Batch of 2 targets.
Target 1
Amino acid sequence: MRIPFTGVGTALITPFKHDGSVDASAVSRLARRQMDAGVHILVPCGTTGEAPTLSVDEKRQVIELVAAEANGRALVLAGAGGYNTKEVIHMAGVAKEAGADGLLSVTPYYNKPTQEGLFQHYSAIAESTDLPIIVYNVPGRTGCNVEPATLVRLAAVKNIVGVKEPSGDIAQINEICCLVPADFVVMSGDDAITLPLMALGGHGVISVVSNQMPSEMVQLVEAFERGALDESRHWHRTLMSLMQVNFVESNPGPVKFSMASMGLCERVYRLPMVAPQLGARDKILSVMRRLGLPVVAGLTKGVSL
């Protein structure tokens, strides 16, 4: 049976303290903020959460904190992906023990496995767990694309239930929506193409901008779902400047800077991520003020540990 991972999922940032440790109270507080705004899925330990810099124990801690807050109010889709299939399988077990409802598994990167290698990679993960799995296909970052025909094969695996598609390739997204089964979830991985993806038959978004403006992103998606296209377009246009400025430098630098500027977390990153440069910071703050987001006085450049 497929679990309906649809609607708005927030790719949660991971807040750190100034001593470099995970800020557990902030993790819980941010998860509650998302659910209070109506977000449907919490996505800890993804790229936006600086997952490659987290130890396995820290990932367990973050997932446990998020799952404890969710407590049935939202689904928890935990990040568990990468190049080493055995390590991903281990992380899948950790995520399940920590309370995850499903796994978001980014494709292997750098070495560019073949389509058969990708199929076997995901099949092995699926065989190791009964959690539902969403394939995370982001070729612009990994150098590896899961082709539509491969997704069709993966959709036949009972617990591979969907794909997060931030490729930006509308033709590919259209082909996927046409080819996969109706109950195979196709979610945007790029805020800016959420509306066109849903128009093609997709099911929502795993969002960065919903870290800052969760209620508004929920309204965008839910308006489309009930057929209120003009309202959905309104929220799309409202959020577009923030969607764009979140990538003025590499994610999650801008979104974490913005969240810290709102007083929601400390401005602490883990290397190689650093705070945005001065020009980028000015752009981010300008967009925030234009949208009426709070900006706390006393900004600093940020710390990377």
Target 2
Amino acid sequence: MHWTKKQVSILAIVAITSFMGTFLISSINIALPAIEKSLGLNAITLSWVVTSFLLATAMFLLPVGRWGDLTGIRRLFKLGVVIFTLSSLLCGMVGSGGWLIALRFIQGIGAAFSSTTGPAILVSAFPPQHRGRVLGISVAAVYLGLAFGPFAGGFITQYLSWRSIFFIASGLGVVTTAIAFIFLGKDEPNRNDATRMNLKGTVFYMIGLVALVYGSSNIPSIMGWVLMLGGVLSLGIFWLFESRSAMPVIDTTLFTKNRLFAFSNLAALINYSATFAIVFLMSLYLQKIMGLSPRDAGTILIAQPIVMAIFSPVAGRFSDRIEPRYLATAGMTICSIGLAALAFLSASTPIWFIVIILLWVGFGFALFSSPNMNTIMSSVSKTQYGLASGTAATMRVIGQIVSMTIATLYFAGFMGNQPIEIVPDHLFISAVRFGFITFSIISLAGIYFSYNRGKISRETA
């Protein structure tokens, strides 16, 4: 195996960007109790510090993926890094929860531009037989960010402030921006006309996501249910527009006629729906119930992503040689068992038990993620790389939103609008338990789609 200097540079740029985004997400999770006290937020509003970022990312992933296929993926990648860097700097300067949530939304837009185009840049630069390996390295960078984030975020929050996390992220963004503009290069000429992209359907898609997510935070009020119903209807209209459009944002036939693509994306949606809120819930649990400092809680939470970072490249490499669905299905099964175990958390749960479960879930996620992404990118033609990458990223982020929405629903049901620090411990533990029970049940459904997706073709160009 011999990679050119250009290929190595592209892999490094995408990996660094992947690390930067997840570092910020995971470090902010560990800083949430400090943000709550500093800005005077309640449990529901605090969850929006995470959800607003995810919502913006989900809203723009699909349109950006299609736009990238039409206008150039490298150009949009660079733009995303710039937006992410500037918004990170501003997040560190806010004086209210409202401004932080708004700027996190803008930050999510930048993340959508870079995370959608990153995998597409990788698969366009490497031959099919190496896709699993390079995607595994990219995924490992994601997990390194997740691993380093809680540890570094805990230290930074405890000894500096939560604002310093955003300042450090903006510094990383400046470095990444410089590297991208120097080494990434330009897109090849493309004769496609970007104005041919169907924007009408995109509007309904964005409105539908906002209505669903905001409506879920207002349940059980009537307005919450009305908004969620309106969101479902808007997404249905979006699907109709896309199925009839000559230049759709998303090719609906990939879901209706490409079983491998459809089931792999559904498996990803389910997996992220079941696992993303683990760090959010465990960060609050370790600091509130176990009485740990941000530094110590972050040290414990690195167990899961460190295992992900170690085994994701290995799983990606094996997925180039054996059928990826076997690895992915085994990973989904392991995650389901781990989530069920977390449902037994209590005020007396030993730390060693928590660490073992986090290691177990991390191993399962590593087995699932790289082989699943390899399958998605290998199930389409080269002209659809941006679309496939954007769709996969959309499934990931919508899954993350679903995960946070489930956690928020249980917080609202058990704690109402109270700040987490004054909620009785037994109510908080009940919310966490019901959350993990729900996640384990959701994960079981993903096993079916993962195993029954079909066989991968190694010859897709």
